[in-house]
Design a protein that fits this description.
It contains 15 helices and 11 strands. It is an alpha/beta fold and 408 residues long. The chain has 3 domains: 2-94, DNA polymerase, domain 1, CATH 1.10.150; 102-285, 3-Layer(aba) Sandwich (Rossmann fold), CATH 3.40.50.300; 289-403, 2-Layer Sandwich (Beta-Lactamase), CATH 3.30.450. Helix 4 packs across helix 5, helix 10 packs parallel to helix 11 and helix 13 runs antiparallel to helix 15. The longest helix is centred in the last third of the chain and has 22 residues, at 326-347. It is globular and about 65 Å long. The structure holds guanosine-5'-diphosphate and magnesium ion. The site of magnesium ion has 6 residues, from helix 6.
Length: 408
């Protein structure tokens, strides 16, 4: 079997897509040329219909746009969306176009909170204890580069680079640009929102970092975190200064012709907000999220719920389909996840479904799905507990997609 895997295709990547295929395939390299019917759910009639519209193999299917193909063939758009994504995953694997590790770069001036943010994110959604706060405030400046290997969203292996922000290091990174910045999937640029006197210096550095990326062939998706935005700093003067900063940030991105960025305020003392902010960035890594959100929407209709969410074991929000209760649902679920992790770690108890009754017809349900050694959490605001069983089926349907969340 291994002999047939193209170079660069790990056995793991191939195992993960088994569930999408109708039969055992021996030679992965041939996949792009095979009929779309190798994908589960595409019947011979559908295969013929696709062929009539010149979608004769998996490669062709992977290049389609679901909207136009749906108009041409009359096949439902959300169904097509799934098949097209399966085709993209298969083609990526067969062509060896899968990097097993993503690279996330945290950059910015010194003392803006990069290391504190990474540490807070890595310890999970645990309320910051007095001890921890002490360690955070005692952080010294990071010397040079620090690397952290983590698993995010259950199946995304990532390397987080924490770039020491002192001037001597900043200059060095810019010189060794390819080595440090090359192949970045996400850039998180942190600015100290309270240090008004250094805004210009921060903007200059952001400018140089983006220039380096341009010279390396492209600017990755960028989140600019205006950090140390603690609850007590909000005053009209603060908001005015920060509004101006946002305008200047937007100007820099216009100059380098990138609209793939967003600006967010963060504080390590508001862990839940920080988790949501980082989740939003992380979702840009994966192209299968529209499918996952589509599945949440379908099940929302089935369950009579307009609020469903999917979290990983650190309480990072993988997917969000909410309209009414975004804040209530995310806050409650993060705390339930933390509670469950505490029960497991401290008392060796494995909590199953957790519920909070808000009223007679309104229940927050959080259901852990343990897959192999990973756990994800499906949460929703439901009209009754009886419906919570459906979340298991939802979990089954989501599983192959989440396993492949980092592939394309
Ligand atoms: N008030 C406040 N202080 C923060 C926040 N984030 C980090 N800090 C503090 O800022 C200092 C520098 O943080 P550090 O993570 O070492 O910055 P780095 O040089 O960018 O890695 C430390 O004393 C942190 O405790 C925040 O959100 N609010
Ligand atoms: Mg640091």
């Amino acid at each position: 079997m291994d002999a047939c895997l193209p170079i660069g295709v790990g056995r793991m990547s191939f195992q993960r897509v088994r569930e999408f295929l109708t039969k055992e395939l021996v030679d992965v390299k041939r996949i792009p040329k095979l009929s779309p019917q190798i994908i589960v759910g595409i019947s011979s009639d559908t295969g013929r219909l696709l062929k009539e519209h010149n979608v004769k193999n998996v490669k062709k299917l992977s290049q389609q746009d679901s909207r136009s193909l749906s108009q041409l063939t009359g096949i439902g758009r959300s169904q097509l969306e799934k098949w097209i994504h399966v085709a993209r995953i298969l083609v990526a694997i067969s062509e060896g176009n899968v990097r097993d590790q993503k690279k996330i770069v945290f950059s910015g001036l010194d003392n803006v909170g990069k290391t504190a943010i990474i540490q807070t994110l890595m310890t999970g959604c645990v309320p910051v204890s007095v001890n921890q706060q002490k360690t955070l405030t005692e952080l010294g400046p990071t010397e040079g580069l620090r690397r952290e290997e983590v698993t995010l969203f259950g199946w995304i292996q990532a390397e987080i680079l924490d770039m020491g922000g002192l001037e001597q290091y900043r200059l060095k990174y810019l010189e060794e640009k390819g080595e440090v910045f090359g192949q970045t999937d996400l850039l998180v640029f942190v600015i100290d929102a309270q240090d008004y006197g250094r805004f210009n210096e921060a903007l200059d550095y952001l400018n140089s970092v983006l220039d380096v990326y341009s010279s390396l062939g492209g600017i990755p998706y960028t989140a600019v975190f205006l950090n140390k935005w603690d609850a007590e700093v909000e005053s009209p003067d603060h908001l005015e200064r920060l509004e101006l900063l946002r305008k200047n940030i937007a100007k820099i991105f216009r100059k380098v012709r990138s609209d793939r960025f967003h600006v967010d305020n963060t504080s390590v003392f508001e862990a839940e907000k920080l988790f949501l902010s980082f989740s939003t960035v992380l979702r840009k890594i994966s192209n299968v999220l529209p499918v996952i959100e589509g599945i949440l929407r379908e099940y929302g209709d089935l369950l009579g719920s307009r609020d469903l969410m999917l979290f990983d074991d650190k309480a990072l929000l993988i997917a969000d389909y909410t309209s009414n209760y975004q804040k209530v649902l995310s806050t409650t679920t993060m705390r339930m996840i933390w509670l469950r992790e505490t029960l497991t770690n401290n008392y060796s108890l494995k909590a199953s479904t957790m519920t909070v009754e808000l009223g007679p017809n309104q229940i927050i349900v959080c259901k852990p799905a343990d897959w192999e050694d990973k756990t994800v959490y499906i949460a929703g605001v439901l009209p009754s507990t009886e419906k919570s069983g459906v979340l298991n089926i939802l979990g089954e349907e989501l599983q192959p997609w989440i396993r492949n969340i980092g592939i394309i």
